[in-house]
What does this fold into?
Amino acid sequence: MAKKKRKGVFAHDIDRLNMWFAIIAIAAFTSVLWMIWDDYARPWKAYQRQFQVVQNEVTQQQLADEQARVDQQALSQLRQQRDAAEQTLSGQSEQIGGLEDEIAAKQTRLDLADQNFRFSRSVFDTRRWEFEEARKHHGEEGAAAEREALDLADAEVEQYRLELEALTLERDALQTQLSALTDARDAATSEITGMTREIDRLQDRLDGLRFDWVYYLRNGPFMDGLNPSERINQVVLDDIRMDLNFTDAPQVDRCQSCHLGMASADYENYDQPFTSHPRLDLFVADTSIHPAGDFGCSVCHGGKGHATTFYSSVHTPDNESEEERWTHDLGWGEIHLWEWPMRTSGDIEASCVKCHMEDPWLPESPKLEYGLELVENLGCSGCHQIDRFDDDRKRGPDLTRIGAKTGADWAYNWVMDPKSFRPETSMPQFFNLANTSDAYWTGRNQVEAEAIVSYLFASSSDVELDSAPNGDIARGENLVESVGCLGCHMVGDYSPATEYDPNTARFSGYRHHGPDLDGVGSKVSADWLYTWVKDPQHYWAETVMPDLRLTDGEAADITAYLMSLTHDTFAAATMPTVDASLRSDVALEYLQQQMPTQAAADQLAAMDEDATKLYLGERLIARYGCSGCHVVPGFEDAGRIGTSLSEWGSKAVARLDFGLLDLPHDRRTFLEQKLRSPRSYDDGRERNPQELLRMPDFDLTAEEIDAIAVAILGFTDQEMRPAAKPAETPRRLAVLEGQAIADKFNCRGCHLLEDNGGAIRTVIADEMVERGVVNNATAGLAFGPPNLRSQGARVQPAWLYDFFTEPSTVRPWLDVRMPTFPFTDHELNALTAYFAALDEVPYPFESSFTTAHSYPADLVSEGRELAADQSGSLQCFSCHFRGTQEPRVPPSQWAPDLALAASRLRPEWIDGWIKDPQGLQPGTSMPQFYTSLEAGRGFWGPLNNDPQAEIDALVAYIMSLGN
Amino acid sequence: MHLRKIAALALLVPFAAACGGGEDAPAAAAPATAEPAATAPDLSNAGGVAGAVMFAGEAPGAEAIQMAADPFCQTAHSDAVMSAPVMTDAAGGLMNVVVHVSSGLENYSFDAATDQAILDQSGCVYDPHVLAMQTGQTVIIRNSDDTLHNVNVQPSSNPAFNQGQPLAGMEIEKIFDSAEVGIPARCDVHPWMGAFISVFDHPYFSVSATDGAFSIAQLPPGDYVLEAWHETLGTMTQSVTVAPNETASVSFEFGS
It folds into this structure.
C-alpha cells in the first residue's frame, strides 16, 4: 500500500511524530501501570493473604475441637426436644396467634394508660407547687382554689394508676398463658444457644475469613476508601522516642503488618513470620506486662520499626545458616547505615537494661543477670565508668595494712600470676600477656611486679593482731563445714560449672562471694587469720565479711584448720632478684614522662634502689589502675583509668579500634575479642611501652564472655521516658534496695530468697549425710538455713530488725548460724522494709500484732487442748520446739520454737500458714490440716468441728505461748 | 480508538493479578500434623505377660524399726516390725517391684479405673509399701491409727500435697493426672514411714509379690518394652512380644 506523504506546511513529519507520540504515550502509560502495580503489590500484603489461610486452618481446627468437645448426644437430644415442642406448637398456632394479638392489643392500651399516668403526675406536681406558693403568700384560706385543683389532680393520678395496674395484671396473665405453651421450646433453644456459643463464634469467624469477591474488591488497587482488610498494622508509641538526629519523634512499629500471629498462642506451631511470640506471658499479649500496644517491638528487638519490608527493617540473622537462607530466600543484606540493627536472639536480653537498669535481679533475663553479676563481681567498674555500679565499694581487699596479713614473696608471686594460686580468683592477670611476653618484657615484668609490691609493703600501716592460741584442726574443719563459712567461700575443688548452670541459665556463684580458701595457709599469718575471723572489721572496716560470733576456742580451731590448707609451690616461692639496670631504665622512662630528659636523669641518679622501687611502684599502680579495685595508700582520690562503658552499647562501630586483626566489624565481635584476649589489638603493631594496651586478662570462659557482652551491649544512650519504665512505687523502690543489699552481703549464699540461692543448703545436707545424721540429702536440707519466702508476711518488723542486729536462736537444732553483719542503720531499715514490701504487708508498725496479747483465756485454753500432744489433737509439739522442750521426732523433722511466736510472728500469717503451708512454702514438712473451712471439717468437738474457730484458737494459743 | 481499547484492557490487568494472590512472599510452614486418634485396644485375642523378679546376691539383712518415739506405734505391734531396703524371700524372689509396660501402647487409649486404690496407715507403717494405680483413679489415703500422721507426697509431675490426719479413720481422696513412677510418700512425724506410688496411663502394671511373681493380663498382641522399677535398685527394661491368646514369660534379675 502506498503511503501519502504530507509535506510543505509542517515543520515536522506528522506521521513520524504521531508514531513517536504513540510510543511515548504507551511507555508512559505502561510505567503508570507499573507504578500502580508496584505501589499496590507490597510484600506485607502477600503475608496477610497467607496469614488468612493460616487463620482459616487454625480456626477450622478449633472448630473441630470444639465440636468434639461439645456433647453431641446431649445437643441432638436438645434439638429433638425443641423440634418436638415446635411440633406441638404448630398444632396450636391459632391459639398462639390469638394470644399474641391479644397481648399486643393489651400492650397498646397499657402504653396509653402509662402515658396518661405520667402526664397526670406532671399536672399534679404543678398543682402542688401552685398550692404551696399560694398558701405561703395568702394563707390556708386564700389558697382554697388551689387546694381544690390539687385534690382534683390527685384523684386523676389515682385513677390512672389503678387503670395501669389492672392492665398490667391482665397483660401478665396473657403472657403467662402464652409462655406456658412455648416454655418447653424456649428453654431448649436457650440451652442449645449456650452449648453452641463457641461453635457459633468460630463459625462466624470462619465466615469472615473467606477469599470471596468482596475480599478482592475491597483489597483491590484504588479501593482504599472501602476499608481494605489488608493494611499496615502499626503502633505509635509516645513514650518511646526515635532519635532523628536533630529532633525526636514517637517510635512507630509496623512489625505487626507481617508478624500477624505474634500476639496469640494459636500460632506457636507456625514458622516466621506468623509464629506466636515465645513469651506471651511477659510480652506482646494484652494481658502481659509489656503489651505490644504500649511497647511495640523495636524497643527490645531493635531494627527499623517503621519499615515494611524484610530487607529495610534490618533483620539480623542468628547464625550463618540463617544468614544464607535469608540471603537466598528473602533477599537479606546487611545495612551498615542503620545504627540499631535487630538484636540476635542471643543478645536480646541486652535491651532489658534500658528500663531495668536499677533491678539487681532479673530472673526473666538470666544471661543478662549473669553478665551484670560478672561485670560487678569482676570489678569492671573499678577502671570503667558504669553508671549502674557507680556507688559500689571496691571489689578487692583493702591493701593499706597488707604487711600485717601476708608477706612480700607471696604478694609478688600473686601479682605475677594470681590464677596459679587461686584458679577462680577474680583478680586478673596483668603480666606476661600477648603484648608483654617477649624476652625484654619477661625481665621488665619482674621489675614492675617487684616495684608494685615494694610500694604496697612500704606504705602499709600497722594493725594490732591477737596471737592465735593452738587449735584443733579436726574441730576447725567441722566448724567451717557447719557454721556457715561455705555460704560464701569454697574449700576443695572449685569448678566454674557450679557458678552458672546452662540448663537453667542461672548464675549461682554465691559460694564464690568470698575468696576460695584453698591454700590460704600459705598466704596469711595465723595471728592475722585468728584476729580476722573473730572480728573482720578490726582489720578492714568496709568488709562485708560478717561476724560469726565465734568463741576464742572456735576461732582458734578454725584458724588451725585453715592454716593447714597450704599451697606447696606458693609457700616455697620467693621474689627473684631483678635486673637493676633494667629497673633504672624503666624508672627513667617514667621520669621522662614528667620532666625533661636531663632532669629525669638527674632525678634518677639522686634515687637509691629503694627510692627507685617506690617511685616506680607508685607510677605503675597508677598506670595499671590497681586502686580501681583496692584501697591503696596514696591513691585515695585516683580516678578510673579505662574508657567509660556507660553508653558503650551505642558507641559507633567506626570508633572501635580493631587494630590489625581481621575481624567482622561489629560491637559484639570487638567485645568478645577484647574480653578473650585483652591485649590482642596490639598484635603486629609497633608501640612503645607507654602506648601498649593495659587491660588485664580475666581468663574468662566462652559463657562468661557471652554474658558480659550482653550486659555491656545493653549499656546504651537510649533514654526511655519515665512513663515507659516500671513505675517507681514505694514497694518497687524498697524491693530494689533490699535486693541490692542482699547482693552486697550475699544473703542468697545461705538463704533461698525470691526462690533463688540457698547455695549452702545442699552443702550442709551432704555434710549431714556424711555425718550419718540423716540418710539422704533431701532430709539433710532441714539442717540448712531457712527459706525466706514470705518472710515479710511471717515476722514482725521489729523482731526482724532486732534479729538482724543481734541474731537469736529460732531453730535450736541448726549448727549453721545467722552471722552478725556490719549493716548500717540505713541498711537495717531498708532490709526490714524490703521483706515487708516483698509480701506487701504493712510496714513498719501498723499490724494488729501490737494488740496481739489480749486473746480471751478460754480461746487460749481451747487452742492448748487442740495443740496438745495426745491422740485426737494436732500434736504440734511432735515437731515444734516449745522453749527448750525438744520435739519427739528426729532432728531432721524439727520445727521452729513456738514460744517465740508472740514476739516474732504476725498472727495473720500463722492463720494463713496453718491453712495452706504448701502454698506459702512448697515442699515444707508442715502438714496441712484444714483442707476446707466448711463447718464440720475440723477436729475439735468443743468447737463444733468449725475449722476457722479451731484456727483462731490455735493462733490465740501460739501467740500466748512464752508470755 | 484502538489505543483506548488497549488502555481499558491494561487497566484490568492489576485486578486480575490481585486475584491471583501474592507469589512474591515465601510460603509459611504448615503446622505439625495431628497424631492419629488413639482408640481402645481390641482384647478379643489378648495375651499377657507373667514371670518373676529375682534378686541375685546377698540381700542386706532386715532391721527392726525403732518406734519408741511414739508410744502408740510402739504398742501397736507385739513383735518388732522389720524393714530392709531390699525385701526377698528364701528363693531370691524380690518383692515390691513395679513391673509395667513402658512402651508399645502409644496408639491405645484407656478408660480410668473405676475401683479405688487404698493406701492405709496402720500400726505406723504404710500398707501397701508400693502402690501402683492408674491416672484418673481415686486413691484413698486412710489413717487407721489413733495418732497423728501426715502424708507428705512430693511428686515431680503431679501436684504435691502434705496433709495432716490427726484422727483415727480420717481419709483423703486424691487423683493423680499424669503418669509418674515411684512418687515418694512419707510421714514426717514417723520418719521410718515411707511408701511409693506409681501412676500409669494404662492398666498394664503389676507389683511383685513376696515371691517376686508378677502378672499382667489382657494385653493386646504386639511388641512391648517392660520396665521393672525398684525403690533402691533402680530400673531394668526388657522387650517382649505378646502373641495372640498367649502369656509371654519374662523374668527380671536385679543385682546388688
Q: What stands out?
A: The two ends of chain A are 129 Å apart (CA to CA).
